[in-house]
Specification:
eleven-stranded mixed beta sheet; 45% helix; 20 helices
Length: 502
């Protein structure tokens, strides 16, 4: 629905509608997508100028650019579907996740809780379109080169790095504040048949063992074990997969991740250097690249003056959806969510019965299926973003974003689509805060795909009680003084800036 500049509208008590009016006034046109009110403008790209760079850096940039041009030209072949995924992420953020900084009203019109939440959203929660464009461009350019280098240094990776799957909050349109982190799963193929041997399941090339909810263990079958002697000349390449096995023929996640990180580090060494660090030039600006490790992720960190972007790269295996675990309270994948496959990532199970359970366990990952659960849920994403902002500003560091999202998965089952469409954001925010408090009080958020696994079971009760008090306090001020909600959603510096509007 389009508004003409300057068109007046009576206050209907819906702050998200008022925000749409602001965007239309500032930009001449507005669009509504997925319940988030956006304005799309053309703005000067941040990479078009480098006036803040010194002449010396400019000269070094040209040198690095020339040194990297050959590598870049040889690195344009990407995994099947990556460019489609990148384009999809770009389109998705144009329509749902970002707002233009130019569209934020100078003075807000705050008349009720909805209008307050809407204004806080556009100022302090929504990612600014210009910021996203810069970060995503740097990510795309750096990863394209790095991925090509990884293929160049490792024959197994070159042959079996089959797909790229975006994961995390960007993929779900749930990222808040800054687009400075991306998550990606890189699917690594195996030189064996992943389907079950119907005649003799124990002789399947991959035997999937269910020992703990949310985790599986992968044991090599006969053909997998014989890779080195069966594959002739290809054994030189395929022996990498054989090296991941332990003495009981289980695929060890640690050996797999060590191999992956080794490939990445060797690829990084092919980049030209600036200040003795690997670097890439994007739009004439030098971005240095360094790495860190956390759990199963190999993190690449891209930096320039005033800029930082962290990208978690996680290797994963893809398994046929027909081999989805059955029994032991695993939920059947809903028909509308099926994608023919599911992933496992090398995240350790630290609650196993013995060290082998930790080393051999792989965590289930259903990014595509879970995204489908969020499809067509209108104001649901806005509500998740508000709760994430509340969590961040109240220091609830033990509550991962995935735990919050899981609360919403369960609620989607209990409600119909109209629930997320007919209720405004303020109503939904209160509703889900009550659900959040109930979960904290009970000390339980059940894993959506298997209710036997408690996502917050590892968090000490005293911490959960402290978090519950914070939620109670917010619910209390919602009833008595809605403007005080801003104190719970904003940092100290943000609130000091914003309180003049209240």
């Amino acid at each position: 629905m389009n508004r003409n500049p300057g068109e007046r509208e009576e206050n209907r008590g819906d702050g998200w509608g008022n925000w749409f009016k602001y965007g239309a006034t500032a930009l001449g046109a507005g669009i509504v997508a997925g319940g988030i009110y956006m304005a799309v403008t053309s703005s000067k790209k941040q990479g078009d100028t480098d006036t803040d760079e010194s002449s010396q850096v400019k000269n070094e940039s040209n040198q690095v650019k020339n040194e990297s041009s050959q590598v870049k030209n040889e690195s344009t072949l990407l995994p099947r579907g990556l460019m489609d995924i990148i384009q999809g992420i770009t389109n998705m953020n144009q329509n749902e996740e970002t707002v233009s900084a130019n569209s934020i009203p100078r003075i807000p019109c705050i008349t009720n809780l909805n209008s307050l939440l809407a204004d806080i959203y556009v100022r302090y929660i929504a990612i600014k379109r210009e910021d996203f464009d810069l970060h995503f461009k740097v990510f795309s350019e750096v990863f394209k080169i790095l991925h090509g280098n990884m293929k160049a240094v490792d024959k197994y990776y070159e042959r079996y790095a089959s797909n790229i799957h975006f994961a995390g909050s960007h993929y779900d349109n749930l990222r808040i504040k800054k687009p400075d982190e991306f998550d990606m799963d890189i699917v690594i193929g195996l030189p064996v048949n992943l389907h079950v041997n119907g005649v003799n399941p124990e002789d399947s090339d991959i035997v999937i063992e269910q020992r703990f909810p949310a985790y599986v263990q992968l044991r090599a079958g006969t053909q997998y074990q014989n890779i080195i002697i069966r594959d002739g000349a290809d054994a030189v390449i395929n022996r990498a997969a054989h090296s991941w096995l332990d003495d009981r023929k289980y695929i060890l996640r640690s050996k797999f991740t060590d191999w992956f990180k080794s490939v990445g580090n060797r690829a990084l060494n092919l980049l030209p250097r600036h200040d003795n660090r690997p670097s890439v030039v994007v739009d004439g600006r030098i971005y240095t690249v360094r790495t860190s490790t956390s759990g199963p992720a190999w993190t690449i960190i891209m930096e320039a003056s005033g800029f930082r972007l962290d990208v978690d790269l996680v290797p994963a295996f893809k398994l046929p959806e027909a081999r989805w675990p059955v029994g032991k309270q695993y939920r059947d994948i809903p028909l509308a969510c099926r994608r023919d496959y599911w992933l496992v990532v090398p995240k350790p199970n630290k609650t196993g019965d013995c060290p082998n359970d930790e080393h051999r366990s792989w965590r289930l990952a259903l990014h595509d299926q879970e995204k489908q659960l969020l499809h067509n849920t209108y104001n649901l994403r806005n509500t998740i973003r508000l709760i994430k902002k509340f969590r961040d500003e109240q220091g609830m560091k033990k509550i991962a974003s995935y735990y919050i999202k899981t609360l919403f998965f369960w609620e989607i089952l209990q409600t119909d689509t109209d629930f997320w469409k007919k209720n405004d954001v303020a109503t939904l925010f209160k509703h889900m805060l009550l659900k959040f408090k109930m979960a904290l009080d009970n000390g339980e958020i059940k894993y959506f795909w298997n209710g036997n696994y408690n996502l917050i079971g590892h968090i000490h009760n005293n911490i959960l009680k402290d978090y519950s008090v914070k939620v109670s306090n917010l619910l209390g001020v919602m009833k008595s003084d809605y403007k005080s909600v801003a104190k719970y959603l904003l940092s100290n510096s943000e609130y000091n800036e914003y309180k003049h509007f209240l």
